[in-house]
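User: quick one - fold this with protoporphyrin IX containing FE bound?
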Amino acid sequence: MTVGKDTETGSSKKNRMSALAIVINYFFHLILFGITSYILSRVIIDLNVTLFTLHIIFIVPGYLILMSNAILIMSDNNFLSMTSKQSERVISHWMLQVFGLILIIVGHSCVFVYKYQGNLPRFQTVHSRVGLATFILSLITGFQGIFTRYSYQLRKFVKPLIQKIFHSLVGNFTYILAVVSIIYGFDQMWSRDYDVIVKPILITLLSISTAYVLYKSLFTMALRIKQLFE
Ligand code: HEM
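Assistant: Sure. Structure tokens for the protein plus protoporphyrin IX containing FE:
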């Protein structure tokens, strides 16, 4: 069984997802929502809402909800957009990117100000260094997305295919780094008895959901690289 028409072409082309693909997709949305809710509620219960915890409260949903959906939409793997045309999916993608980026910028500003005000050591841990790299790459991906959006108009300067490959390369890598930052974050912060069970569960769920969010996008990128050499 397939859902959604696929008779259209070009910018009006719609997405096809089998019933099984929709169930799996729904399941991963629940996992991502569950992980995000757990991290946020745990941080708020343990430490309350402070300038420091705001970095987690803003950044984690920014990546796990908004950026995940932005990637899933563009790789035609999101039940929320399966009835949308290609042009509508592009708009949803960049809107999610923009809102995600706003949360990420605000979250980083909170932790930077917190550290600055407290005169605390900066970028001493693996988490903070990977986090900084994630932040910088997120800004680069967002900015470069503008060139990818207008890649056809800019084709005299750079091949659209190269723009798209570069965008997915940096975007996917940034998403992986974001997940690594999250894992290092709670790994260095949580040390209660039950964390011996909680941390491996979260790491496993995050690894599986990351593989799911990225696999189609990586596959399309590989096809494009192959196309480049044909
Ligand atoms: C993608 C998600 C995240 C990113 C990009 C990120 C980024 C950062 C950055 C850049 C710093 C250092 C700021 C500075 O030194 O000026 C920092 C500090 C910190 N973050 Fe995160 N963070 C994320 C999620 C989390 C999570 C989920 C937790 C814990 C549940 C966490 C816990 C901490 C702690 C304990 C510090 C202070 C110690 C240190 O500098 O490493 N972070 N974060």
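One thing worth noting: Residues 39, 43, 55-56, 59-60, 63, 108, 111-112, 115, 122-123, 125, 127-128, 131-132, 134-135, 178, 181-182, 185-186, 188-189 surround protoporphyrin IX containing FE (CB under 6 Å).
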